[in-house]
Amino acid sequence: MHHRYDVLVVGAGGAGLMAALYAAKGNVSVACISKLYPTRSHTGAAQGGIGAALGNVAEDHWEWHMFDTVKGGDYLTDQDAAEVFAKDIIDVVYELEHMGLPFSRTADGKIAQRKFGGHTREFGKAAVERSCYAKDRTGHMILQTLYQQNVKAGTLFFNEFHVTDLLIEDGRCRGVVAYELSTGELHTFHAKAVILAAGGYGRIFKITSNAVTLTGDLMSIYYRKGLPLEDMEFYQFHPTGLAKLGILVTEGIRGEGGILRNESGERFMERYAPTIKDLAPRDIVSRSIITEIREGRGVGRDKDAVNIDLTHLPREVIEGKLAEITDLARTYLGLDPVKDLVPIQPTAHYAMGGIPTDLNGLCLSDGNGGTVEGLYAAGEQACVSLHGANRLGTNSLGDLVVFGRRAGIYAAQYARQVEFADLPDDPQAESRDLFDSLRQGTGKENAAVIRKELQESMMNNVGIFRNGPDMEKQVDILKDLKARYRNVTVGDPSKRYNSELIEAMELGFALDCAEAMTASALNRTESRGAHDREDFTERNDVDWLKHTMAYKDLDKPGNVVIGYKDVALKGFTRAFEPKPRVY
Fold first, then answer.
1. The whole model's pTM is what?
2. What is the pLDDT of residues 542-562, one digit of tens each?
3. Residues annotated as catalytic (active site), given as ranges
4. Residues that constitute the known binding site for substrate
5. Where does substrate bind (predicted)?
């Protein structure tokens, strides 16, 4: 089937819905493709809040938020992006409020705000209340609000469609090809502008907070076109996921006063971050937890977790402001946070890297300012480099709505100025070949077995702590897994709702993302933000204050070509940081 729209959005999470809404306001026809029903998108898993310097509880300014974003990103953040973000997010939060988002409130009726890790006043002097929240269901409320606004605006949704190819010719994107789950048919979507907002790829790891759908599909498809992925080595492990399960335990639980304790009951973050303790940035807290575990102070049967302690907090805070995570602990662990310590461990959570874009969401084709005409990206899938080497909590939801909005505005503006470009003669050819190889192959490999080996090996070799020998081993493991993947055959011959076929296809995408990440991490011989190397323990601004651009070697399968892009600086440098560096 063939469809035609001025602007096509891929993904219906926070970034996709915001982009679709603002494109629709631009007086163009808009359609949105989603793997899921929109309100089931992974943005709904974001619990703690959306950071904005409103100053409703304590004095705050956008310059402080910009500084925290740059410092939290370990100075790899593009500072022009941080400035745009810190200013725009204030207006966007009020805009969401006016759309009907039910924020929690202060006693005088303003949007409530609470502390969150890494957010400070006066350029690092003390923690500040900056996170705007709707109890611990902030992401869920953003999804509901934006979906309703899109229905009102007339956005057309294609739910349970899986994009299988980007139609890019002569440097211009002309649309996408997608697989309809309910019929098994391929559809061609012809568009003047395409916005990619399909989320991250956390499912390459064994323990992750990410939904099973987050396999990096569009990152992989972009990469397969010979286009770069930026800063893939930087992947954030959220310090608090429910032990063994990886289900997110919001940072808001520490913002409300939760304390991390080891086996002896010690509040160990006092040793690692004596100033702001449990509210240090996520990379520091994650490494501190793993260090406690490595040194034998973990809890549980396997001693591979630590406890989060809420028992000193009033019941009304736990069951009111932290209702969702309380329910999750009771349901999945059989523990009541009101009276029990809850075991947690770091969980693969968020990709700082992805498809490179400029400040308006336009996709970059290289590290020198080249672009892909008509193709935009926003959200976790994109890398405008707001987060640098490590994202601050609450900045993910802000990223979605600020840069989703900008992508929607500029994509609509572009679509109004151009005519439809011609499609390729057979736009579905590559997608058919992809499915035929999986359906008609004679190999004996099983996708589930390969997926398990991928997730376990990535967790072990390219996890929170990294070193050269382990990552070199992972390069070889991935080459072997990709060779075996070529012999995967899908046993289910059905066309409709063939989940085995979809999961096999997604595995191929995940392997590409793992390949780009591992090569980028092995290449960066320093420690910075979430990239912590045991063999190169110091940050090296002389050699490594630059973004990685990873390209698939189209001539030598399994090889990755590394390029670079300059970091945009704008006043904040390491010299600005108060000395000594103590959190």
1. 0.92
2. 999 999 999 999 888 889 999
3. 282
4. 238, 250, 349, 391
5. 238, 250, 349, 391
